[in-house]
Amino acid sequence: MTLAIYIVLLVVCIVGVKLNSKSYFLQFIIVCLITYLMGRGALTADTFYYHKGYVEAQSLSFLGFYEPGYLLLEKIGNALGLSYVEFRLMVVFFAWIAISVFLNKVLSRKVFLFYLFYCVFLIFIDTVQIRSFLAFSIVVYALKFLLFEKRLHVYVFFCFIGIYDSYKRACISYFWGFDFKEKGRSRLFAFIIFTNFHFCVIFSRW
Q: Which parts of the chain span the membrane according to its record (predicted)?
């Protein structure tokens, strides 16, 4: 069954490449197929702990929990009565929607080449750490705001990084590469430092 779905996925990717169009319908099919393959979850050493964390999430407190964004999602999943596999499917699907928005923005008709190369890398099926994958998708989505010149979009980008920080504690690593020496950027730099410090103080366990 898995092999058949994977073959269909590759065929759809190749068809998309041949058509050389953005075809949102084909992209939706690809996202759904990838979601199914990734969302079921592989049986690895981390799987047990992710499943255990999901089941126990409904009784955990946000106080002292250093990644409250993911805990909130787990609580929502429990409230909706979703099993762990169903929760994974939901998270992976929305993560791929976010990634696809950015891909269509920067790759346009070449987007199917990305899907094809990604799917050829078979290890994606065994993605267990969906918390990290979801956090990554938020950062990728936020990157589209850096394609604009307006400072407001830069602030929006760092707001998304703040959201990312609530899912995976690595916020500061995405602050590199910006020229804060330009006129007016010093305030932005101060804003970044303040925001990151704020998240670290509130959401850190220590």
A: 24-43, 85-103, 115-143, 155-176, 188-204
